[in-house]
Amino acid sequence: MTSKKKTGLVLTGGGARAAYQIGVLQGVSSILREAGWPATRNPYDIICGTSAGALNATALACHADNFEDGLQLLLGVWEHFKVEQVYRADSLGVLRSGAKWLTLLSFGWLMRKWHANPPNSLLDNTPLVTLLNRMLNLPRLDAALIDGHLHALAVTASSYTAGQHITFYQTEADIAPWVRSQRIALRSQIGVEHLLASAAIPLIFPATPIYCNGRREYFGDGSMRQLAPISPAIHLGADKVLVIGAGRLSEPEAGNGGLVQYPSLAQIAGHALSSIFLDSLAVDIERMNRVNATLSVLTEEQRARTPLRPVEMLIIAPSERLDEMASRHIGSLPRPIRMLLGGIGATEVRGAALASYLLFEASYTRDLIRLGRRDALGRRDDVLAFFGNVNSPVQPREEAIVTK
Q: Can you give the pLDDT at residue 212?
């Protein structure tokens, strides 16, 4: 007996930009409900997340038995966000992390006392631990997997220690770990430490230790060295995948008018983060499209001889530049953070890309949610085509599992 086709959801990284994902998921759920899909039923058999997308993915997975509850929980968090829920924004906290870090970069050679205990990051994200423990009900995740409301959850992180990109996945199915060039998978019980590691934006937030491969390794943001963001969903059995991006997949060329200034540190950092968070997804989508196109011209006999299989994709990404949106909301950041970021040019329009990843403030996140909802509703026909006949009766989920 073969299992039904499985739908995957891939939530990419992007710090505060991940609010956009909530709007898209809202819009998709609204379209499905209007077409007859029960609000409580989870539309996604496999949920994969990276960086801030891993936080959203895990929260949704914990509510796979009642998807609407999970979506409303996330909506409540993202619509009322304050940076203090993610990182310390008070003067003392900023002095202990960011100001100390920047001073060390400038004068560390004079300060021998810091050589043995240097600051670990620009910002201190210890408040995020409290938020995650409040948001997540991990025993409920275990129950959702056992009861068949969810097939698998995966979050990714990058090991500074081993130099590898690792996908941690949790499932009740018999799915063996996979190994690819510079990336491996480990079956694991997903915990808060995996999410802190996945969301540890390089240099901005501190690395997180996780015990794996028989030793303790330090991990950073899962978007680093993520060569194939869609791959985990496919390895876990997805036949079609909804991918929600955290930035526009292609940008028009910038105009050549006006005086070109030397880039600020924030502009360079924002460019680097955009490369980490956005470029690999665009490349992976191109690769998947090429594979699908190649398979479409093969005969049945030829397709049977290849391990590749066609995967249907629906990509929803922002229709507006999120750095430009962020530049309108920088004033909502607490004053110590504005002063810290202003010192490297992140409060200027040209440096707003960096701020767009750190602006965990309701004025900005609500705008992102509205944009995501609008972008999803504008793809109504594509959404309905992707999910197929949603008016069909709900089928039980006791299908036999086919191991890849």
A: 86
